[in-house]
Design a protein that fits this description.
binds FE2/S2 (inorganic) cluster, about 25% helix, binds fe (ii) ion, seven-stranded antiparallel sheet, single chain, alpha+beta, Naphthalene 1,2-dioxygenase Alpha Subunit, Chain A, domain 1
């Protein structure tokens, strides 16, 4: 067994799955948190979950917790859930609405902007201005909220992802949606096992009967299989989508940046990812024609999403330990859709609930086998698993000391930063 990170990185053979320690070792898991989850933009949730000032939800990222909230000016904030007095967690409920953040220990009071507004019995020399809550960066992308825990001057670029994804996602109106269904899971597998599973459709035909009713299991990067029916559908649908003004464009990890967006056709007779091909909810956003296929988005390390004409589904990964991952699968419909009249939650969730749960079972089986003394890294298929290799290389790049110039690997002393007070929330992200 390799004894340090450098030896482990050297021991990995390109084209094969990762050595066992990458999936099971606590030290590696801490590196994953520090370099991958604290050093990149991660998906936090949906802007429609915090529509009003004071609305918040807790985002757990390893041992960190952020309070993601809407402030009085309507901006989004992500404060560390750590009191500046002696470090207590401040907010206990996973979501809610509040006018201020009050620490339950000695009742220090913070405004929604993170400023300390009240600290009783601290004496005359105490300066409240020195004890603002620590905060991460926040960006909204067409209704999706991303946060970054990196210090301001070193935040990875996110503008390119916004520029590529936003125009394609915006017509789906995720910022004017609501969460119709939320399925949460704790999957007994390393988070990378889940991403690897997502990056290939080698397993789809046998494992995902519901998914394969409406979806081709082709068209993924790193998968060289082709099919005349699929190629024809792609050409025909691209022409239609252009006419609809949807600006379809496949963008696939450009220059190694950790995101992909692609609108893909659904099978004939399927207007959405449903069991019978019929809509399961009213058209979303600005869409006027249901034949928009399915817009697929992935941002590493922790989001994949499909936006259909009538609903969208997002999958958020949050690592808990090397062998345990929390997953939240949210189904969004337009905000004015009425449950029981316009949609049945079980119909909305039918395809992706089945597909997700099939994947979690595959991942738990995969992880259990990886733990065996009989496990050794096995070969990826050159025909179908090119994207799994691409993910492995991206991941390993995060761990290498020679990080790219746009990345910053925070250490314990620098990954927190304190924004300057500002009237404009977006300017609080110093240098972002
Ligand atoms: S730890 Fe929060 S007020 Fe004391
Ligand atoms: Fe799958």
């Amino acid at each position: 067994m390799a004894t340090n990170l450098r030896d482990l990185l050297r021991s990995r053979k390109p084209g094969k799955s990762l050595p066992q320690e990458f999936y099971t070792d606590w030290r590696l898991f801490r590196e994953d948190l520090r370099r991958v989850f604290h050093g990149n933009w991660i998906f936090a949730g949906h802007s429609c979950e915090v529509p009003e000032p004071g609305d918040y939800f807790i985002l757990p990222v390893g041992e960190e917790e952020l309070v993601v909230l809407r402030d009085k000016e309507g901006g989004l904030r992500a404060h560390f859930n750590v009191c500046r007095h002696r470090g207590s967690r401040i907010v206990a409920e996973p979501c809610g609405n509040t006018r201020a953040l009050v620490c339950p220990y000695h009742q220090w009071v913070y405004g929604l902007d993170g400023r300390l507004t009240g600290a009783r019995l601290m004496g005359a020399g105490f300066d409240k201005h020195e004890y603002r809550l620590r905060s991460g960066h926040v960006r909204e992308l067409a209704g999706l909220i991303f946060v970054c825990l990196s210090p301001g001057e070193a935040t990875p670029d996110f503008d390119a992802a916004v520029a590529d994804i936003e125009p394609q996602l915006r017509p789906h109106g995720l910022d004017r949606a609501k969460v119709a269904v939320r399925d949460s899971y704790e999957v007994r597998a390393n988070w990378k096992v889940l991403v690897e599973n997502n990056r290939e459709c080698y397993h789809c035909r046998v494992s995902h009967p519901e998914f394969c009713m409406s979806n081709y299991d082709l068209g993924l990067p790193g998968d060289s299989r082709s099919d005349e029916g699929y190629d024809n559908a792609l050409e025909r649908e691209y022409a239609r989508w252009r006419e609809l003004g949807l600006r379809p464009r496949e963008v696939n990890f450009p220059g190694g940046d950790p995101y992909r967006v692609s609108r893909l056709p659904l099978k004939e007779d399927y207007l959405t990812e449903s069991l019978d091909g019929r809509l399961v909810a009213p058209l979303m956003g600005e869409l006027t024609d249901p034949r928009v296929g399915s817009l697929r988005i992935i941002t590493l390390p922790n989001l994949w999403a499909h936006a259909n004409c009538d609903y969208a589904v997002t999958t958020r990964l949050l690592p808990i330990g090397p062998e345990l991952t929390r997953v939240d699968v949210c189904f969004l419909v337009r905000e004015d859709a009425v449950e029981g009249e316009d949609f049945d939650p079980d119909r909305v969730a039918a395809v992706w609930r089945a597909t997700s749960e099939q994947d979690w079972e595959l991942c738990e089986n995969n992880h259990a086998g990886i733990k065996s003394v009989a496990y050794e890294p096995g070969p990826f298929s050159e025909m179908t698993e090119g994207s799994v290799e691409a993910f492995a290389q991206w991941y390993l790049d995060q761990l290498h000391d020679t990080a790219t110039k746009t990345r910053h690997v925070p250490d314990a002393t620098t990954y927190l930063y304190e924004p300057e007070p500002s009237a404009r929330p977006e300017l609080d992200a110093k240098g972002a």
